[in-house]
Each structure stands twice: as C-alpha cells, then as structure tokens.
Write a structure and sequence with these properties.
Distance between the termini: 81 Å
Order of helices and strands: HEEEEHEHEEEEHE
Radius of gyration: 29 Å
Number of strands: 10
Strand content: 25-35%
Helix content: 25-40%
Largest sheet: 6 strands, antiparallel
Structural class: alpha+beta
Number of helices: 4
C-alpha cells in the first residue's frame, strides 16, 4: 500500500509540474512582443490641413491586422501633396486623406476638385473638410454692382489649406465639371463668398 501511495504521489507531482510548465509557457507567449509588423507613414506631430512636407511624417510599425486600408508606405511621393483635413500625432496616413483620386472617389462619379479663393479668410477658417457650402459671387467693384448670385450649390469642402493673401483664402471643393466652369467664370469677374449648410449624411 505504501509503495502504491508513493507511485501515486509521484504521478501527481509530475502532473502538477507539467501543468505549471505549460502555464509558464503560455504566459511567456502572451507577453512576448509581436515582432511581425508593417511599416507605414504616420503624422510626426499634430498636422493642419494643407501641403505636406517630408518632415511632417515618420515611419511607424503596426501589427498587420491594425494597418488601415490605403495606408501610405515609406518611399511614397508625399512632399507637396495636400492633406484634406487635420491629423493627430501618430495617426497613420491613408490615401483617402490626401487630395487626389482616392478622396474624390468617395464623392461620386463625375466629381472634380475645384480650387476657389474666398474673399474673406475669416470665413474660410470656419470651414472643415466635409462641410457643405453654397458659393456666391458678387462684383468686385461697388459701381453698378449687381446683387450677389449663387454659382454653386451644395458642394462639399475637400480641404482648407493653410495660408492666405490679400486676395483671400484658397479652399478646394468637390464639384461637377459644370460647377467648376461657373466658379472659374465668377472668380474672374468678382469676389466669392460662401454660406455653410448642413453636412451631408
């Protein structure tokens, strides 16, 4: 009987040791850092909308399952590209955040990016990408000035680049080709202003 108990006790100790070893191994695996990563470009600091510089971005490593669709990789041509909206430090850059085909694709077929200069820069600073606006045109002179007229309705703001001049602030709108022609004609002979509508969606 004593021999049987010794054998049974030895087996219990072996089982307990095996269970402890397995638990330790599982803990080490759980704590081990995931060395597999994908390198993408992210904001090196809080960024406003506008033209990008190489120093605005830095490479970061992300787990493959956390990489957003359209993430921009190191080596891509970024300098001078226009960021459609502000980015937080560390946020990965995607193609949909840059002014170009990917951004326009979300606006529907036949959409073009149309830069327009708003006469009042203070008004332009109220805008954010995604805002929906009407664009009005008025004569640039007081003599014989006609009432302002609407030249584009319900157009979406794509980006509001930093910087302004004595000629106003430049914004980029998602318009149809016809609206782009109307805006170009109105801009050549007058001053543009905007009214802000409710956002789409």
């Amino acid at each position: 009987m004593r021999a049987f108990r010794r054998i049974l006790g030895r087996r219990h100790r072996l089982v307990a040791a095996a269970v402890a070893a397995l638990a330790t191994t599982c803990a080490l695996v759980a704590l081990r850092p995931d060395t597999a990563s994908v390198t993408v470009l992210a904001a090196a600091r809080d960024l406003p909308s506008g033209a990008l510089d190489v120093a605005d971005l830095k490479p970061v490593g992300l787990r493959p399952d956390t990489v957003p669709d359209g993430a921009v990789r190191p080596g891509a041509s970024i300098a001078g590209r226009v960021l459609a909206g502000p980015m937080r430090r560390g946020e990965p850059l995607t193609d949909a955040r840059l002014l170009g085909p990917s951004l326009l694709a979300t606006q529907g077929p036949g959409t073009v990016a149309t830069p327009v200069r708003v006469a009042d820069p203070e008004t332009a600073r109220l805008l954010s990408p995604g805002d929906v606006v009407d664009v009005l045109a008025a004569s640039s002179t007081w003599e014989g000035a006609a009432p302002a007229r609407t030249v584009a309705e319900d157009v979406t703001v794509l980006t509001t680049p930093d910087g302004e001049s004595d000629r106003g602030a430049l914004i980029v709108l998602a318009t149809t080709s016809h609206q782009a022609i109307e805006l170009a004609s109105a801009q050549a002979g007058g001053r543009l202003s905007i009214t802000i509508n409710a956002r789409k969606g």
